Amino acid sequence: MGSSPPRISDPRAVPVTGTDAHLPAVAAERLSEHAVRERFAAPGAFQPELAGDGRILVQREPVPAAVLVPLVRRPEGLQVLLTQRTAHLRDHAGQVSFPGGRCEPHDTDAAATALRETEEEVGLDRHHVEVVGSLPQYTTVTGFVVTPVVGLVTPGFVVAPDSFEVAEVFEVPLSFLMTPAHHRRHVLHWEGVQRQFLSMPWAGRGADGRPREYFIWGATAAMLRNLYRVLAADARA
User: Fold this and answer.
1) CA atoms within 13 A of residue 166's CA, in its CB half-sphere
2) Of 47, 56, 82, 135, which sits most exposed with the smallest number of CB within 10 A?
């Protein structure tokens, strides 16, 4: 058997093969908090465009996990709250991620996991979060089977990142992330095996106020792409 593709340590160096500019952006009226709430209240199961990273690179049983997809209500429109993970973590070090983590036996469901982990990682109290639904599960190369829980977040919360896990907390306009022209496709070839992933680089400002690029890629970008498919689809379909 051939060796598994290596973990990608520098995703920026993997060639970009194109963008998805041919796909329409989600219409502005579908990005309001009311529209998001109504979309997730619609009956029917959501089918993921991307169900996982590909070949799992670790030898262990799948680990159930959940993340919160926090959509913060702002005057200028919904913003997606994301974290930059610290560089020393064992899994997904230094990457942009949703707050979340593995399910614990005392968690009643995926939403309970996502809310608990979000409180622990970034200090966002669950009383500020209205859970509206979830996206299809996503399996990472590190063996986590992740349920993304979507929540509308009321401002007024105080961010208090866990310095061991979280280097920074920032927000990106939902409208930017729901525009496929900003979705870049990367392809990596390794010993005859091909691995693909998406990236959605965001030019924002760091905690010091200086401009910087937040490189959103991998599982986080894939889950955002699944959110795009949900919000762009006809609820009656």
Assistant:
1) 23
2) 47
Express each pLDDT in 58-91 by its tens digit: 667 889 999 999 999 999 999 999 999 876 445 4
Residue 49 tokens, joined: 């465009």
C-beta separation of 15 from 8 below 8 A: no
Would you call 4 exposed, middle or buried from its count of C-beta atoms within 10 A (0-12, 13-18, 19+)? middle
Q: What is the DSSP letter of 207?
A: T
Buried (b) or exposed (e) across 90-111, using 16+ Cβ within 10 A?
ebbeebbbbbbbebeeebeebb
Q: Using an 8 Å Cβ cutoff, are 113 and 194 in contact?
A: no
Distance CA 161, CA 99 (A): 10
214: exposed, middle or buried (Cβ count in 10 Å: 0-12, 13-18, 19+): middle
- Indicate the DSSP class of residue 117: H
Q: Which of 74, 65, 58, 129 is nearest to 102 (CA)?
A: 65
Helix, strand, coil shares of the chain, percent, nearest 5, are: 25, 30, 45
